[in-house]
């Protein structure tokens, strides 16, 4: 039986974007309506967030084969120099409604991007199309509906693939990947492609998602109905603020939204919500949410379903092709971290993913962690980051190709 359309928002409105929005609602729902009026960062990610903490950072612009211009940042430790950085390259891939800033929102001692840089890794920060740290398109305006004609399928096949290829070509080394939430959907899909997998040394996936049949988030929204005809989903726009206002005005109880969407997060620092909201959320396409909803409703990990006629035209078959997780090389090391309180990356769906892999990933189970703890926990270094660093170092001997 098809799940309600609103479940997709329970999965992705705040859970995959980050708890910054939802946590503020949980404290004071009235503040949510001021979201679109908050200050937006005006400079580059390097200048705005990374260099003020004392880290060397350089900006890179790359072009996907379908014409999108993506921003990448390259970061070294406070004691390092980008020109002489010798550690293996690591690409950080953010989740939905987020961008590369998500890896730097806590202190240098708590943020994954800073911790990896201080440990000598050559840190590269990904930003997918449509986010504020990317740079548009070679010919399409962001006001053009065609600019937003994409889902996580294109993010995996074009954006992530291009990022990996660029880093590989610059460093002459295989790339380590760290992904969170939608970043794991992208990673798993991309790694089924042999030309991408051969450039990757190992991957650490937080809250890994490829199937979404068993989401237990209880929060119900009407967003997908209200968003009909909208191509860009941007909560900082007037339209986005009005949408949220209409959802919370008499239709939905916006108290304790974070827990109802993501599960109970044990280690989120509520005192930093105002700071987080200077950066999050970032825009995405409505088509992206529709694709995620297809995963929930159909129980598949497949390309976008356009309907029978367009599927025949694009794919040569009635149904969209699946991403076959069995194609991910058995020799590719994987670490997968999941939480006991995560209502989005459900444990049953996670075990479905494990059954389809050829390899046996290294598992990190954090019983008290909800979905958001994996990106902004104040205890993440001890709980998670040190494990990832040890995992990468154990597989980094062959990183030079």
From TrEMBL:
Domain (Partial AB-hydrolase lipase) ranges: 48-106
Any one biological process term the GO annotation gives: lipid catabolic process
Stored Pfam families: Abhydro_lipase
One Gene Ontology MF term: hydrolase activity, acting on ester bonds
Active site: 181 (nucleophile), 342 (charge relay system), 371 (charge relay system)
Keyword Lipid metabolism: yes
Signal peptide coordinates: 1-18
Annotated keywords: Glycoprotein, Hydrolase, Lipid degradation, Lipid metabolism, Signal
Keyword Cytoplasm: no
Family: Belongs to the AB hydrolase superfamily. Lipase family.
PANTHER family in alphabetical order: LYSOSOMAL ACID LIPASE-RELATED
Record's protein name: Lipase
């Amino acid at each position: 039986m098809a799940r309600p359309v609103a479940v997709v928002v329970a999965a992705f409105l705040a859970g995959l974007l980050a708890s910054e929005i939802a946590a503020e609602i949980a404290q004071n729902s009235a503040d949510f309506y001021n979201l679109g009026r908050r200050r937006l960062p005006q400079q580059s990610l390097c200048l705005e967030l990374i260099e003020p903490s004392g880290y060397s950072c350089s900006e890179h612009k790359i072009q996907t084969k379908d014409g999108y211009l993506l921003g990448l940042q390259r970061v070294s430790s406070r004691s390092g120099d980008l020109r002489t950085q010798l550690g293996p390259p690591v690409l950080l891939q953010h989740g939905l409604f987020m961008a590369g800033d998500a890896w730097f929102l806590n202190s240098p001692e708590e943020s994954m991007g800073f911790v990896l840089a201080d440990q000598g890794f050559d840190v590269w920060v990904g930003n997918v199309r449509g986010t504020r740290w990317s740079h548009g398109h070679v010919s399409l305006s962001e006001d053009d509906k065609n600019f937003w004609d994409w889902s996580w399928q294109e993010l995996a096949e074009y954006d992530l693939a291009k990022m990996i290829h660029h880093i590989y070509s610059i460093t002459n080394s295989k790339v380590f990947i760290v992904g969170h939430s939608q970043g794991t959907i992208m990673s798993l899909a991309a790694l089924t492609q042999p030309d991408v997998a051969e450039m990757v040394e190992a991957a650490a996936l937080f809250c890994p998602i490829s199937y979404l049949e068993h989401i237990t988030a209880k929060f119900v929204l009407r967003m997908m109905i209200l968003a009909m005809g909208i191509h860009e989903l941007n909560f900082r726009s007037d339209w986005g603020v009005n949408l949220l206002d209409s959802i919370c005005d008499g239709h939905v109880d916006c108290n304790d939204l974070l827990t109802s969407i993501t599960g109970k997060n044990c280690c989120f620092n509520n005192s930093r919500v105002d700071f987080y909201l200077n950066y999050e959320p970032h825009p995405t396409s409505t088509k992206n949410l529709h694709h995620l909803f297809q995963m929930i409703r159909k129980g598949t990990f497949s390309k976008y379903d356009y309907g029978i006629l367009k599927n025949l035209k694009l794919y040569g078959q009635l149904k969209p092709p699946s991403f076959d997780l069995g194609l991910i090389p058995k020799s590719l090391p994987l670490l997968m971290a999941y939480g006991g309180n995560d209502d989005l990356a459900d444990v049953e769906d996670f075990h479905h993913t494990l059954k389809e892999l050829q390899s046996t990933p290294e598992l990190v189970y954090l019983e008290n962690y909800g979905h958001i703890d994996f990106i902004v926990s104040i205890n993440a270094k001890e709980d998670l980051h040190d494990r990832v660093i040890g995992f990468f170092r154990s597989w980094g001997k062959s990183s030079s190709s």
